């Protein structure tokens, strides 16, 4: 099976599982103050333990090696480039959320960074006062009034919820960049893009996740609480201020 077919199969499976689970949102319970319904906790803990083991022997060492071998300015340019590729999805979600100002700002960011920023390698827009803002379909569903539903830990990807897993699947499948790569026979670049983003995010959060694991009596519960707080802040367009820790979704 080719890399492209493998990608399609995996994402179709995630999408189907998430969309089927969406019906549980109404009965999954509300999430407040870092709390969320976790009816499948025993299963989630098992997946969480598996993810942590895989991370310890693969992604974390790769991220550490990437940090040690690649100068920070180069890593920053890679991050800028990968974020710029996400611009169509960000703009679309802001539009769906009715955020006119945010839609205009993110559109302007994409235009500036793609041109003056040489394909997004340099975040010229941020220097001009237009900072990067993540928006995804999980946040859009939240703005539309859907609660998290049940908490889930996705294999390899990590902490999520029924709502956010659905959003992840929709964003990935509907991403214009992915669609273009797929239609032009470059499915392998989709996989490469996902891998690059995973390594980039893992490097970005190396210190934060290490501290959270070191200082938590129950790492699983701490990650779950932190994830919910982080997503609540993201939906409210708030910045993490130390009360929460950004948790990467690989």
Sum up the structure in keywords.
mainly alpha; 250 residues; single chain; two-stranded antiparallel sheet; 66% helix; 13 helices; globular
What general form does the structure show? globular
Order of helices and strands: HHHHHHHHEEHHHHH
Arithmetic mean pLDDT: 85
> In terms of structural class, how would the helical and strand content be classed?
mainly alpha
**Individual helix count:** 13
Taken as a percent bin, the fraction of beta residues is under 5%
Overall radius of gyration: 18 Å
Largest beta sheet: what is the strand line-up?
1-2
Helix content: 55-70%
- State the major sheet: 2 strands, antiparallel
Give the distance, in angstroms, between the N- and C-terminal Cα atoms: 23 Å
Taking pLDDT < 50 over at least 5 consecutive residues as the criterion, the unreliable ranges are 9-30, 238-246
Total count of strands: 2
């Amino acid at each position: 099976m080719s890399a492209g077919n493998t990608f399609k199969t995996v994402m179709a499976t995630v999408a189907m599982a998430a969309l089927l689970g969406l019906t549980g949102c109404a009965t999954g319970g509300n999430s407040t103050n870092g709390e969320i319904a976790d009816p499948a906790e025993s299963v989630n803990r098992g997946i969480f333990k598996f993810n942590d083991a895989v991370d310890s022997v693969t992604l974390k060492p790769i991220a550490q090696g990437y940090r040690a071998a690649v100068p920070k300015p180069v890593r920053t340019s890679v991050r800028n480039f990968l974020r710029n590729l996400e611009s169509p999805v960000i703009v679309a979600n802001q539009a769906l959320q009715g955020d006119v100002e945010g839609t205009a700002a993110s559109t302007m960011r994409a235009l500036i960074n793609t041109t003056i920023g040489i394909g997004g390698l340099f975040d010229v827009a941020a220097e001009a006062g237009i900072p990067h803002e993540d928006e995804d379909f999980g946040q859009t569903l939240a703005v539309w009034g859907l609660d998290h539903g049940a908490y889930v830990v996705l294999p390899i990807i990590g902490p999520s919820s029924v709502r956010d897993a659905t959003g992840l699947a929709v964003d990935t499948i509907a991403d214009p960049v992915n669609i273009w790569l797929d239609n032009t026979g470059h499915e392998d670049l989709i996989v490469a893009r996902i891998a690059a983003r995973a390594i980039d995010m893992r490097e970005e959060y190396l210190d934060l996740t290490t501290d959270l694991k070191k200082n938590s009596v129950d790492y699983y519960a701490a990650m779950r609480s932190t994830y919910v707080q982080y997503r609540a802040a993201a939906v409210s367009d708030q910045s993490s201020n130390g009360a929460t820790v950004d948790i990467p979704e690989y």
